[in-house]
UniProtKB/TrEMBL annotation:
This is Putative aldouronate transport system substrate-binding protein. Residues 1-27 form the signal peptide. It comes from Kribbella voronezhensis. The lineage of its organism: Bacteria, Bacillati, Actinomycetota, Actinomycetes, Propionibacteriales. PANTHER family: ARABINOSE-BINDING PROTEIN-RELATED, DIACETYLCHITOBIOSE BINDING PROTEIN DASA. Transmembrane segments: none annotated. Gene3D superfamilies: Periplasmic binding protein-like II (3.40.190.10). The keyword Signal applies. InterPro entries: Bact_solute-bd_prot1.
Amino acid sequence: MRSTLSKATALAAVLALAAAACSSNKAADGAANETTADGKTVITVFSPSDPTMNLDTNRVTKLMSDKFKIQFKWQTTTFDSGPAKEKRQISLASGDYPALFFLIPWVDAFTQAEVLKLGTQGVALPLEQLIKDNAPNIQKALDSNKTYKEMSTAPDGHIYALPQWADCYHCNYPDKLWMNSAWLKKLGLQQPRTTEELRTVLEAFKTKDPNGNGKADEIPMTSDPQDSSLIAYLMGAFAYDPVGANNGQRSLLTLNGDKVTTPVNTDAWRQGLKYINSLYKEGLIDQAAFTQNAQALQAQGNNPKAVVLGSVPVLWPGIFVQLGSKDGRDKQYDAVPPLTGPDGKSYTGLNYPTSTGYTFMLTNKASKEAQVAAIKMLDYIYTDEGQEIANMGPEGVGWTKPGPGDIALDAKTKPLYKPIQGDKVPKNISWGAMGQYNNTLAYRNAQVVPTDIYSEAGLERRLFQATKLYQGHEDKAQWFPQTSVWPDPSLSGELATLQTNLSSYVNQNQLAFITGSKNIDTGWDAYVKGLDSTGMTRYLQIQQQAYDKYKAGSK
């Protein structure tokens, strides 16, 4: 029944979009312009909004409204990704969509396939001429950043939507392991450097009462499926586990020269899973690591009776422990560099670019005046001043100029701005993640960050320093440039289905091998055979064709 309903819904959406496309020629010269009594251009905007935000009264909304003579008419949704995307799709399917989609990558951004569909149907307007005529800062970003231009430009040469560009150095290397240094010190141990040294440390955490409460309540290693890099971190000692460029979602693709391959059917991958299974069998990996939700992991990390977590493979410590904890437990965790495996391998995944998905899209509901006003507003956000205001709010409220003795995140860089911390910042003064469009590494590294890395305010420096342990362990020769490679739009539906089915198949089987519900020695060949019946051969074929076309065009 559910399948029938979903097909009917999909058909309705396609018909509605087709109808919208039929009317798009009329909008090619711009929809009718609507202005307010004081001469502002009315623009309907679809955006996410969290409970602390009121976009109608937001300080940045007022600033942008006055500066660019825009009257915003907001259509808002939540930061909850599922409902946000559903509301976005309903607006498109009904034909009652806005002049501008102004989204957040990790909430409700459009995919490549969606951008292509909406562009070819005439719903999304081409932006490249609008940018050339009105947006020198955006044009400069496109011309100076090859990856950004490749991400932005569809195979037909049009820019139907823009992704954000937010360089997050620590997000580039998500496969980190945070380990309790206080426990290591108490037990007289060093941070592990190899897979077998990790086993020794985890055994000591489990059996030698490092929290000193006389109870065997220590959890050597745990995580939660939503945030986990457990498999990836441990797999790096055996095989390159690709992240791709999907905000941390694992990719199935690697490169061997110019041949598109997958690592998940290799003997090295099998050896990695055998190692992880051995840790699980010995009780060194928590059974809950593969089933508990994020709240349950936080409950373990913040256990009021005792510190019980020995190590957690996730992006950053705040995922599993409350920063600023009264007993200082959050300061006990430090990053462990990638381990070296029995064959000398020591990989980490690369997530680049870290901000994916398409977040700025003008539709055929936008008048010419609205198009120009919106692109000029976005162009302002591409400046340092525009970023500071859009991301943090007005100067003196969300940020200040650096003072004497202030040090930038990258100490070799001249400090540019100083974010005001925590409770001192009023609510509803910025657009936050909605405005991170030209957040380059140079800009991000120029922020002032306290030198105490274990203070809440010093978190960014703590992550910056930790990430240096991982940089260089990525294998760029095997890295597949996911966001730059646009598959054939006619195959986008098939590709999405294959991706979903293969990801599910690989994840289910990996978990079965790790937990022992499937024997990896006797079940491996059947698993590999099942990859092909699930569509791996066809999936790699489609990706190979797209990659070949990308390589030919980039020469």
